[in-house]
Structures are given as structure tokens and as C-alpha cells.
Design a protein that fits this description.
With about 120 residues, this protein is mostly beta strands. About 0% of the residues lie in helices and about 50% in strands. It has no helices and eleven strands.
């Protein structure tokens, strides 16, 4: 069974940090791009960052550049999202998604092959 499982969310004060994990299992994801998305209450899902598992190349949304870092650990089959200098507007449910057809920050959800269940991040002011 293929799974993406997010963890690491929680409550943090503005200016603080959190590290989210997206742990994969059930197949090899070496040919996938792993994306992080977030969705705040009443808002549409938004792209956050993506990484090519094979090359390690990364892409970021402008809103998180310089504050968030996406990385992967091949041995642990895990992609991380290190979030620093958090702001209240970063509050959202964060989900990871795997896509074989390359990076895409704005494609239809059905074009991503696998999704995780999401983890809540709350940043207090």
C-alpha cells in the first residue's frame, strides 16, 4: 500500500520554527516530484514548495522563499519542510503530494499520483 504520511505540525508563536515530514512507503519515489501544499480556512489550496527526488532541485512559492527549505533523506524515504520565521498567515493544513509528471504547483489535484492526509500548522501572533 502506497502511503504519504505527514507529521510535525503543531502550534508555534510567530517567529518560531517547525519541521514537517512527509514519509513515503509502498513504492520507490525516486522518479517523483514531492510537493508541499497548504490550505487555510476559507482559502484555496496553495503551492508551497517542491523537490525532485532524483536531482534534488527545488522550487518555492514567493511567499515562503528565504524562510522555508525543502529537502529529502533518501535513507529515510522522507521529504522535509523546514519552516522558519513563521507568520500567522502561514497557519494552514499542510499536505504533501507526489507527482510523476514533473513539478507543477497549480495542476489539478487528480494529476498528482498520491496525497497525504495533511498536518495542521498554527502560528499565533
Amino acid at each position: 500500500q502506497v502511503q504519504l504520511v505527514e507529521s510535525g505540525g503543531g502550534l508555534v508563536q510567530a517567529g518560531g520554527s517547525l519541521r514537517l515530514s512527509c514519509t513515503t512507503s509502498g513504492r520507490t519515489f525516486s522518479m517523483y516530484h514531492i510537493h508541499w501544499f497548504r490550505q487555510a480556512p476559507g482559502k484555496e489550496r496553495a503551492f508551497v514548495a517542491a523537490i525532485s527526488w532524483s536531482s534534488g532541485s527545488t522550487v518555492y512559492a514567493d511567499s515562503v522563499k528565504g524562510r522555508f527549505t525543502i529537502s529529502r533523506d533518501n535513507a529515510k524515504n522522507t521529504v522535509y519542510l523546514q519552516m522558519n520565521s513563521l507568520k500567522p498567515e502561514d497557519t494552514a493544513i499542510y499536505s504533501c503530494a507526489a507527482r510523476t509528471r514533473g513539478y507543477c504547483g497549480s495542476c489539478l489535484p487528480s494529476t498528482y499520483d498520491y496525497w497525504g492526509q495533511g498536518t495542521q500548522v498554527t502560528v499565533s501572533s
